[in-house]
Amino acid sequence: MIQTLLDIIAPESCLECGTEGLIWCEWCRLQHDPLPSRCFNCHAQTDNYATCAKCRSKYGLGSVYVFGEYKELNKQLITSLKFECKRHTAVVLSHVLLDLLPYFDEVPTLVYIPSVLSHVRQRGFEHTALITKHLAKLGQIPQANLLARTNNVSQVGASKQKRKEQIKDAFRLRLSAKKLPKHVILVDDVVTTGATLSEASK
Q1: pLDDT greater than 80 at residue 193
Q2: Backbone angles phi, psi at 116, to 5 degrees
Q3: Are the C-beta atoms of residues 110 and 141 closer than 8 Å to each other?
């Protein structure tokens, strides 16, 4: 209710063109193409953002759909959601992700990757859950709250090796997760080393 009221009193302006309404208007969003299809780790060219055979054996991830590099406009959007508490940015990001996903013969289930609990308390909401909620509604894709965090260690600024150590066994299935879906899409905001996605998929 508070966010809706703020949007009426002081609506957001597009980060690119300045038009009032959304933090990134549809016109500007449609002018940006996603990254070419490639393996998220080694950047070898693949179809449908599939992970190459070598990296798949290492990370256990079938495909990783990435819209763009974490810099400039993309970084501003993520920052506005995570650190400036602009929840409506999740709506824009859900459109970006839906445009990126291919057609699936069998409908997958969306599962968000939970953040460190202290970060959730600071911002007052779980930003990955919010993105997933809007993506599920927009694409009419089922979602399930299957993962829980087992530690409270922040990975911000950590080295690649440190990230791997910190994220090990950082997730567990919720007690309510009695039946796992056959196909799952994990939803996260930023892919750095792939360690978080890999551990969550396990």
Answers
A1: yes
A2: -60, 135
A3: yes
